[in-house]
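job 3f2a | input accepted
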Amino acid sequence: MAPSSKELVLRPGMAFTGVKVFSATMHRDREVLGENVTRWISDHPESQVVSIVMAQSSDASFHCVTCALFFRN
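job 3f2a | predicted structure (73 res):
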């Protein structure tokens, strides 16, 4: 199956200085992915999130969800 992705631009036109990538393949890891992203954002108040890209890819056996945070310090 082809990967699918969605992007949420929070601050149009603002350049980013870093990227933090979260990914999960196992069911339990996918369930807590959002909590891990939220925790990272909370633990890094100096990082202003500019854009978020969510992607999912699948094959016959596995589903991988990836969240990329583009941020500016």
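job 3f2a | The beta strands are 4-9, 18-24, 48-58, 63-72.
job 3f2a | closed
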